[in-house]
Amino acid sequence: MWALVIALVLALASIIWVDTKLNRTDAFPSQHVANTAGTNWLLVGSDSREGLTDEEAARLGTGGDIGSMRTDTIMVLHLPLRGKATLMSIPRDSYVNIPGYGQDKINAAFSVGGAPLLTQTVEQATGLRINHYAEIGMAGLANVVDSVGGIQVCPTEAIDDPLANLNIQAGCQTVDGPTALGYVRTRHTANGDLDRVARQREFFAALVDKITSASTIANPFRFWPTVNSIAGSFTVNKNDHAWHLLRVGLAMRGGVDTVTVPVGGFEDTDVGSVVLWDDTAAQQLFDSLK
């Protein structure tokens, strides 16, 4: 009895402690689209190198300019009132209207206007009201993976991409933080960014599964480093809290449907090669989540 009480107190204390350590930002625009059903999270994998030394950038294979602000990962996690969650990937090169800037790749919204403009762009493109926001950078992603002792990924083919510092064989295997980072960043496969968004969903599900597993929660030598890593790695909206993140973990443990916004083709434009949505199929998907 007392052991259960102590465990509950420690769990509550850790949640409160994480909540005080989370990075917070004003991630929402001044005006939202109308309310839609359920709860929607905008999940962003920031490509920012801010805070990385040259040595850390080399270890993680990030390349690019230190301090650049981009995003490789844009996903919407839909938590319905009942039933399974849906994790929807939005290809970063999706050609959409960015309020105040016109047609461009969707990740340009993050570059020019940060989280608020990206949230506004996603809302207007999908019609889905975003209720919560969570962002993690490169170093943070690798650190969280390492804190849980690695995660399992199952590539269907070998991938050798020096630009992402990735050399991985086909088949299920446990990978460390830098390898996991390369795995979600590489586009060095036949379908490029479309393959990458599928790997990003695979990674997210595997990471949540490992964080919420008994092997992590019941092992204090793994649990506390993981809690500490999560606390310092995530940026959430100013009104989001650790218990909201906990609900994400519980929903993911219950199973999740995964999907990419339906693609209708590709086109060369003045902003480069872009992804065009299949408007009819995409609208059907968005409507199913409202």
TrEMBL record:
<dbReference type="InterPro" id="IPR004474">
    <property type="entry name" value="LytR_CpsA_psr"/>
</dbReference>
<protein>
    <submittedName>
        <fullName>Membrane-bound protein</fullName>
    </submittedName>
</protein>
<dbReference type="Pfam" id="PF03816">
    <property type="entry name" value="LytR_cpsA_psr"/>
</dbReference>
<feature type="domain" description="Cell envelope-related transcriptional attenuator">
    <location>
        <begin position="70"/>
        <end position="212"/>
    </location>
</feature>
<comment type="similarity">
    <text>Belongs to the LytR/CpsA/Psr (LCP) family.</text>
</comment>
<dbReference type="InterPro" id="IPR050922">
    <property type="entry name" value="LytR/CpsA/Psr_CW_biosynth"/>
</dbReference>
